[in-house]
Design brief:
Length: 711
């Protein structure tokens, strides 16, 4: 497990010591690691491409951020918000922060976590069961939520079994939005001695919450979850001091007693403590009851037990449908066991039974939208699915996040006859009076995919969008617009570096040289320039005598030292280096991206190896292009029993296995082309096995080239 910094003493000896700790390179780097290893997939899915490209030059960009903070150049930026539906029918905001702002927020959470760590031990796993802290230097900030929630359920069960049948349920209204900045910062600097850090963090918090009332923290980033825990810590300690049977998971609180009076006293004490801190009890969720059964206490708590649906067995579909049916109240048309239902929807193969119910459930229980969309991607071409999605969009469905996800679903299978959808998407982007982030993002993605399908020019609408919409939409821009277009120039020169980084990632993906963009290197944001240098775009790698690829392969994979990589790659050296550097930079934070980039590096190496074999009249030669000049797919070049496989069976098998797993990633294909199985991200065990294949392949390539006299 990676270690970044040593545990810091919470003592403050000078007026700027806390500020210096906040902006130190060690703390900023630890913050970055904790962002990329956090488990909040719903938030991270928007940023994954940006995280992977930022990682290429993370040390340089952290250093640059540190310098800007010291020089008082850094300014927090106003974020964007979207709104997710809640079971109550109301909405929960999600705040999209820029990357440097996310780092600062997490750096703040790092310091506050260390500050309250000892006091937190008095309540953690005893009365508080959410966001257990890991060690001070651990790149994983908190422990997985499943472990925490299981402890919460066990604690409640133990109270009931011990005879505490009276239970009170307490919840908070708009919890994150009502957190006082002053009270939160007081926990970091109790006596207000470090004026600079207080002034800086107040400005950040006000900017990120877009209000002047000094309340609220941005929802979405995992750092905010810990800040919320810190804010409630004084309340937790006071409830223990008053000897109440008090148990909390985030803002879900249970109170136990032998009789009703005990619970009422605890409830009143808790209400007053909350109001003293500016928190608003949610009266509609308050209740006191005498539980007859454990189920009365647990209520609608989700089950977190492992669910056996026989994945991979011939009974898989049948078991899946049975389990899904058990999670529903079909008469009421609603999900009653959300854990089982979501588990099924994220893993189920195609099922007409499940599809029928999902189409009914989505308008009625839209708060499960991510799970619905995960399942519906298998049916994006079905008329019934398109009809349902379209009906919700045109009736102006009230949940912005849901509408945005429906637009993305449409984008997976676009028909040339989608004129009405195209016109509505254009209308959404032209209407500046309604700033609905997710709807605009979904419409922008749809129009770019529509342009790919029809050739009609709609991607230029991106010119006038918010920079985060531009960055999130860039992977969908038609490839011809990434070569010398006005759109490309505008995106590369945006002040917010997220946009240009997203573009650079696409240029790398499509093997487009940066000089064709027509933008001078020094016109890019400094953070993007750092990434370009890290990728080899701007370091003159073709002229340097150092074999960077050889160094990286030896250091990262322990490949036999060999200086011939520049010789065999020739003009393709810089391009291959980009893929290799990018792969190495994300191998811990994004395993699936590591595999995608490694396979692209393999593709580049294979094609030049074929040229080497042909020029030396060696066995295993295969044509890598069709008669019309089009490149053949890499997968077809490593098929079993091909000429290359017969000459070098071990090498070909390794490359084939790596490529086959790459093709089963969600980034590559939503389903396996042969079996129809749903694509899955790469897990840790698979990565370890594939790294072994990578090592075998590269050592074999070195052996072949040395045998041909290339040194």
């Amino acid at each position: 497990m990676e270690k970044i910094v040593k545990k810091c003493s919470p003592r403050v000896n000078s007026k700027k010591e806390m500020f210096n700790k906040l902006i130190s390179k060690n703390n900023l780097l630890l913050a970055w690691r904790r962002i990329t290893t956090s488990g909040n997939s719903q938030y991270k899915k928007f940023y994954r491409n940006l995280y992977s490209i930022f990682e290429v030059a993370v040390n340089e960009n952290i250093k640059y951020l540190n310098q800007n903070l010291k020089a008082n150049i850094y300014k927090p930026k106003f974020p964007e918000r979207t709104y997710l539906p809640k079971p109550s029918g109301l909405q929960r905001p999600i705040t999209f922060l820029f990357i440097e702002d996310q780092i600062i927020l997490q750096a703040f959470a790092n310091l506050l976590a260390d500050k309250i760590r000892e006091k937190r031990k008095e309540v953690e796993r005893k009365v508080v069961f959410s966001n257990y802290l890991n060690k001070s230097s651990d790149i994983f900030f908190v422990k997985p939520w499943r472990q925490c929630y299981k402890d919460f359920q066990n604690a409640i069960t133990e109270q009931f079994n011990s005879g505490y049948k009276w239970v009170g349920h307490f919840d908070l209204a708009a919890f994150y939005d009502t957190i006082s900045h002053d009270l939160l910062l007081k926990q970091l600097v109790p006596r207000g001695e470090d004026v600079e850090v207080l002034k800086f963090l107040r400005k950040c918090l006000k900017t990120w919450t877009k209000n002047s009332y000094s309340h609220g923290i941005p929802q979405g980033p995992s750092a905010s979850d810990l800040l919320a825990e810190c804010f409630l810590l004084p309340l937790d300690l006071e409830m223990i001091k008053r000897k109440h049977r008090y148990f909390r998971y985030v803002d879900d609180i249970r109170l136990f007693g032998k009789n009703e009076t005990e619970v009422r006293k605890a409830l009143i004490d808790l209400e007053l403590l909350c109001r003293e801190r500016g928190l608003i009890p949610q009266s509609s969720k308050h209740s006191i009851l005498k539980a007859q059964r454990l189920k009365d206490v647990l209520g609608n708590m989700p089950s977190i037990q492992d669910i056996d649906i026989g994945i991979g067995s011939k009974f898989f579909v049948r078991k899946t449908e049975t389990k899904f049916k058990q999670s529903l109240d079909i008469k009421k048309n609603e999900i009653i066991n959300k854990s089982i239902a979501k588990f099924i929807l994220y893993r189920s193969p195609r099922s007409r039974f499940i599809l029928k119910h999902v189409l009914k459930l989505l308008p009625h229980q839209p708060h499960f939208i991510d799970a619905y969309i995960s399942f519906l991607t298998q049916y994006s071409h079905y008329k019934k699915v398109k009809k349902m999605c379209w009906s919700l969009i045109i009736e102006d469905f009230p949940y912005d996040y849901v509408v945005g996800e429906l637009w993305k679903l449409f984008s997976l299978d676009i028909d040339k006859n989608y004129n009405a959808m195209r016109d509505l998407a254009v209308k959404i982007l032209q209407d500046k009076s309604k700033h609905k982030f997710s709807s605009r993002l979904g419409a922008a993605i749809f129009l770019n995919e529509y342009e790919k399908r029809t050739g009609q020019n709609y991607s230029n609408f991106l010119l006038y969008e918010h920079s985060l919409i531009q960055a999130f939409t860039t992977p969908h821009i038609p490839v011809n617009k990434l070569q010398g277009s006005s759109l490309l120039t505008r995106l590369l020169t945006r002040t917010d570096f997220e946009v240009s980084m997203a573009v650079i990632r696409q240029l790398m993906y499509y093997k487009i040289d940066f000089p064709t963009s027509g933008v001078a290197f020094n016109k890019l944001p400094q953070q993007t320039q750092n990434v370009m240098c890290g990728l080899g775009y701007a370091t003159g790698v073709a002229k340097t005598k150092i074999d960077l690829i050889g160094q990286i392969l030896t250091n990262e994979y322990n490949i036999t030292k060999w200086t011939g990589w520049k010789t065999i790659l020739g003009s393709e050296y810089g391009h291959a280096l980009m893929f290799l550097r990018s792969a190495v930079s994300v191998q811990k934070s994004n395993r699936s991206d590591w595999l995608m980039l490694t396979n692209s590096f393999n593709d580049s190496i294979y094609r030049v190896l074929q040229i080497i074999l042909a020029s030396n009249h060696a066995p295993g030669v295969m044509s890598t292009v069709y008669p019309d000049g089009q490149l053949k797919e890499f997968g077809g070049l490593v098929n079993p029993n091909c000429a290359f496989d017969k000459a070098y069976p071990a090498l070909c098998a390794s490359l084939r296995i790596i490529n086959a797993r790459r093709n089963r990633l969600p980034q590559a294909h939503p389903y396996d082309k042969k079996t129809g199985a749903r694509a899955k991200p790469l897990d840790k065990k698979e990565q370890i096995l594939l790294r072994g294949k990578v090592v075998n392949a590269y050592n074999e390539i070195v052996r072949i080239c040395i045998g041909l006299g290339i040194n």
